[in-house]
């Protein structure tokens, strides 16, 4: 089973959130997307009032059904995370808190799954913590390098 991820997001010089779909994941795609939006809000990558990509654009970029994207957005709307305005793009709600608490709550299920898998593979807690530290450091390095890169030049 492949752990292929499909990525979509801002394609222009504006830095925007990236969305990925892990097709091999047991988690439904709409839930993957809803979780990513919540993480982007918790991390500050998406702020209140920020617009989300259109359903059509995100579906095309990710190669998934528009109904899947709509289901994720409807779930977030029902939870008060997104606001729909007639004839306008969906935006992040003003009422969504941005603090460490939600980020920790969002990360916990992922870490619980990783801990379960590490245990099943026979890793000790020390080995799992070392691995997590290495992965986190690599992610920080990639984020730092990405933020220092100049904006893309417009196509001629």
From TrEMBL:
InterPro entries xrefs: Tscrpt_reg_HTH_GntR (IPR000524), WH-like_DNA-bd_sf (IPR036388), WH_DNA-bd_sf (IPR036390)
Pfam family, one: GntR
This protein's UniProt keywords: DNA-binding, Transcription, Transcription regulation
SMART domains registered for this protein in UniProt: HTH_GNTR
Domain of life of the organism encoding this protein: Bacteria
Recorded GO MF terms: DNA binding; DNA-binding transcription factor activity
Gene3D superfamilies noted in UniProt: Winged helix-like DNA-binding domain superfamily/Winged helix DNA-binding domain
Domain HTH gntR-type: residue ranges: 27-95
PANTHER family assigned: GNTR-FAMILY TRANSCRIPTIONAL REGULATOR, HTH-TYPE TRANSCRIPTIONAL REPRESSOR YTRA
Protein name, per record: HTH gntR-type domain-containing protein
Organism for this UniProt entry: Roseateles aquatilis
């Amino acid at each position: 089973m492949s752990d292929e991820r499909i990525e979509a997001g801002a394609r222009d010089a504006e830095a925007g959130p990236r969305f990925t779909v892990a097709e091999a994941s047991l988690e439904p795609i709409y839930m993957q997307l809803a979780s990513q939006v919540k993480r982007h809000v918790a991390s500050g990558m998406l702020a209140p009032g920020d617009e989300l990509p259109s359903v059509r654009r995100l579906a095309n970029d990710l190669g998934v059904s528009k109904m899947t994207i709509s289901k994720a957005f409807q779930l977030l709307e029902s939870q008060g995370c997104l606001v729909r305005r007639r004839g306008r793009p969906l935006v992040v709600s003003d009422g969504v808190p941005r603090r460490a608490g939600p980020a920790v709550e969002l990360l916990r299920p992922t870490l619980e799954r990783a801990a379960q898998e590490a245990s099943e593979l026979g890793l000790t807690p020390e080995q799992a913590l070392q691995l997590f530290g290495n992965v986190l450091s690599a992610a920080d390095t990639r984020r730092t390098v990405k933020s220092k890169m100049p904006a893309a030049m417009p196509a001629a």
